[in-house]
Write a structure and sequence with these properties.
With about 150 residues, the protein is of the alpha/beta class. It is globular and about 40 Å long.
C-alpha cells in the first residue's frame, strides 16, 4: 500500500510532455503535481512530501532563458534541500559525458526517446523505494538535517 502523503513531481517546460508523464504515472497511485520549470518546481517542493521528481534536463532557468543545465541545477537543489527525494532526469538530447557525471552523483538519467511508459513506471517505482529508505535513515539520525518536507 502506498504511503498517502508521498507525491510525485513532473517538471518539464512542455505541457504535452508533462501531461503524458502524469498520465503514465497515475498507474502508481500517488498524487502527481507538475511544474513548467525550475522555479515553479522549487515552489512545489515546498508544498509537499515528494518521493520522486521527474525532471527535464533542458528548460528555462531562473531568468526564463532556455538552459541545458536547468535540470541539473534543480537536481542539485533537491539533493541539498530534500535529501530523501529521488530525482530522475529525462532528456531528448542525451550526453554520455553528462549522464556519466550525474550518475556518479546519484542521478538516474534517461533518454526521452528510448524510455517507454513501462520503463518509466519501473524506474519511478524503484525510486519511491529508495526515497522511503532514505527518509527512514534520515529519521533515525540524532539530529535530522533541516529540510522542507513539511513534517
Amino acid at each position: 500500500m502506498n504511503e498517502p502523503k508521498w507525491r510525485l513531481l513532473v517538471v518539464d517546460d512542455d505541457a504535452d510532455v508533462r501531461a503524458d508523464y502524469q498520465e503514465a504515472l497515475t498507474e502508481l497511485g500517488y498524487p502527481i503535481d507538475s511544474a513548467a520549470g525550475g522555479d515553479a518546481a522549487r515552489e512545489q517542493l515546498k508544498t509537499g512530501d515528494y518521493a520522486v521528481a521527474v525532471i527535464d534536463m533542458t528548460m528555462p532557468d531562473f531568468t526564463g532563458k532556455m538552459s541545458d543545465f536547468a535540470g541539473e541545477e534543480l537536481y542539485r537543489h533537491i539533493g541539498e534541500h530534500y535529501p530523501a527525494t529521488q530525482a530522475i532526469i529525462l532528456t531528448s538530447l542525451p550526453s554520455i559525458k553528462r549522464a556519466t557525471r550525474m550518475s556518479g552523483q546519484g542521478a538516474v538519467y534517461l533518454s526521452k526517446l528510448e524510455t517507454d511508459d513501462s520503463e518509466l513506471l519501473r524506474v519511478v517505482s524503484e525510486a519511491v523505494l529508495r526515497a522511503q529508505d532514505a527518509k527512514q535513515r534520515l529519521a533515525r539520525m540524532p539530529f535530522p538535517p533541516s529540510n522542507e518536507w513539511g513534517d
